[in-house]
Amino acid sequence: MWSDRASGYWKSSIRALHSIRQFRQKKPVHRTSQKIRKLIKKPIEKENVDHKVYMRDTIGNISKILRSLTWDSAQEKLGKLSIRWDSYTVNQVLKSHPPMEKAWLFFNWASRLKGFKHDQFTYTTMLDIFGEARRIESMNYVFQQMQEKGIKIDAVTYTSMMHWFSNDGDVDGAVRVWKEMKAKGCALTVVSYTASMKILFDNKRVKEAAVVYKEMLRAGCVPNCYTYTVLMEHLTGSGKYKEALEIFSRMQEAGVQPDKATCNILIEKFCKTWQTWAITQILLYMKDNFLVLRFPVYLEALQTFKVAGESDILLRQVNPHFSIELSSKEEIEFKETPANVCFTIDRGLVLHFLTKQNFFAIECLLTGMIPKNTRLDSVIISRIIEVNCAHGRINGALLAFEYSVKMGINIERTAYLALLGVFIRTNSFPKVADIVEKMVRAGIPLGTYLGALLIYRLGGARKLGSASKVFRLLPDDQKGTAAYTALISAYFSSGNVDKGLITYKTMRSKGINPALGTYDLLVTGLEKKGKICEAEMYWKEKKTLHSDGHSRDIVSMDEKICNLIFSRNLVS
Question: Out of 15, 405, 435, 563, which could bridge 517 as a Cys pair, Cβ 3.0 to 4.6 Å?
Fold first, then answer.
């Protein structure tokens, strides 16, 4: 399983390198004035798009001909196509994976076309086709033809040869190709070094692999994600789990982020040796970076946690798109219903757009989901709210909150706090009372400090109705000195001093003691309204409070919070 994924990993890297080089050499160099460039920019862009679509359709048509017809019929039909047969076109047809025999016949047919000549790209792709089919003699024949015809052989071609020799069990042959590649002075890439390390590690030639790694660093090649994955895979196979996780952290410090394939490979390796603590470390990273497991790896991890008798909550949080149930035989089954498929697609899109920070696309998705009654899970909606709040996008966060309300989804406490936090920072409070009400009904208390601060800031924003509602929503044990003082402040800020004084008297009648911050608020507020006599009365009460010996060590936490908010005359 690992070898299949690794093979796909490195092959895509090699093909990408050749594709980029082939594409670059087809671009002519033109010197054009800035004025002319502006005039022709849009038509050229449209022309490029049309050309890509044309080439895609053309290559798809040729591949279909090779797959569906006998070679005699296919050859006749290919000859009638009015297209320009160049290296790029032939190479892309070969990369579309027609049957091996047809690919070889097509390769030889193309070599006889007038004005066409195979190059390093088409030869290397044909070499790959034979190598993947384990037709090593045929692969060697193609390579020999390249040498005889003077075709350029670069690191990409040598790396392909090296891999296919190893894949066929000929490790010595792979090492021989590696040495020949270096002797020829090829410009080695990180893909070449990593492929060599992988072959050596897999065949217990650890010292030689370490030498290759050091050579790579000395040559100035920066390790990529796959390089680190090869190192960690070797360490886990050697039982060095802590060292593997150290590499996992160091690669991030170096600016290389582990991808989905890396995380799946590591968790699969850790499952085989029941390293649940290590699995948890990888899952925490995956949760923060919106990565998910492949379903077989998820099942293996689920079973690992079950056997170890440990909680699998984090595993399920990272992969909520899997619907799991235990059958009567205690075997794990996956229920793939149309609803689950749609859910997985929608969730995947949202995760992708979150990673790219494409907030507009997320808003469009949510807007379209509401009338269709399409539900996302609490983790995703909470994350959307948190990310929008972190970027100061109140409207996007509110849209996600409204979606959760309409879908009956209980978002996480961190999402509520993110919403209230961005309101306080921006001094903007849309629908704040509704949010607090939903939060309280979900059994998530505001807390003494946040409740008092929110009431105070709402009052300062002249939103007395919302401030009063938030106060009413607070549980009785949180309606203390800080909350009452904040409500008094809200009345003062709205100009309703009398109501503020009534609230103060209500507070005293309930046996709630005022703090120094309460008196500071009363004195300052009354003075601003010209009620000097009453202000002096409260100033005297404050002085009495001091003289009665209220020291810091007997002041309640509620009073300390009140003093923190109001002791510096914070009345607008």
Answer: 563
Q: Are 326 and 306 in contact (CB under 8 A)?
A: no
- From the centroid of its chain, how far is CA 110? 44
Q: How many CA atoms lie within 13 A of 398 on its CB side?
A: 13
Q: Dump the DSSP string for 169-235.
A: T-HHHHHHHHHHHHHTT----HHHHHHHHHHHHHTT-HHHHHHHHHHHHHTTPPP-HHHHHHHHHHH
Could you tell me the two tokens for 433?
């009372």
Distance, CA of 286 to CA of 257 (rounded, Å): 11
> Where does the pLDDT of residue 8 fall: very low under 50, low under 70, confident under 90, or very high at 90 and above?
low
Alpha helices in 31-113 (DSSP H): 34-68, 71-79, 87-95, 100-111
Per the model's pLDDT, the better-predicted residue between 76 and 22 turns out to be: 76
Is the Cα torsion angle 55, 58, 62, 67 positive or negative in sign? positive
H helical segments located in 258-337: 260-272, 276-288, 295-308, 313-318
- Contact between 213 and 21 under an 8 Å Cβ cutoff? The reply is no
User: What is the rounded distance in angstroms from the CA atom of residue 346 to the CA atom of residue 352?
Assistant: 10
Residue 121: predicted pLDDT: 94
d(CA 60, CA 425): 55
Residue (of 95, 85, 88, 152) closest to 120 by Cα position: 152
CA–CA separation, 168 vs 420, rounded Å? 61
pTM of the model: 0.54
Do 190 and 227 meet the contact criterion of CB atoms below 8 Å apart? yes
Interval 105-112 mean pLDDT: 94
Q: What is the mean pLDDT of residues 200-204?
A: 92
Distance, CA of 551 to CA of 546 (rounded, Å): 8
Residue-wise pLDDT for 278-304, tens only, equals: 999 999 999 888 888 988 899 899 999
| Coil, helix or strand at residue 471 | helix
Q: Which uninterrupted H or E stretch holds 325? A: strand 324-326
Residue with the larger pLDDT of the pair 161 and 414: 161
The encoded tokens of residue 537 equal 């009365």
Residue keyed to tokens 């920072």:
425
Joined together, the tokens standing for residue 216 give 């790579």
Please provide residue 178's backbone torsions phi and psi, each rounded to the nearest 5 degrees: -60, -45
Count CB-CB contacts under 10 A for residue 40. 11
Is the Cβ–Cβ distance between 317 and 379 less than 8 Å? yes
Percentage of the residues of the chain whose pLDDT score is greater than 90: 39
3-state class (DSSP) for residue 334: strand
Residues 6+ apart with CB under 8 A from 77: 65, 69
* Separation CA 337–CA 72 (nearest Å): 45
| Backbone Cα Rg of the chain | 34
3-state secondary structure of 326: strand
Whether residue 154 contacts residue 177, with contact meaning beta carbons closer than 8 Å, is answered with no
H or E element, residue 526: helix 516-528
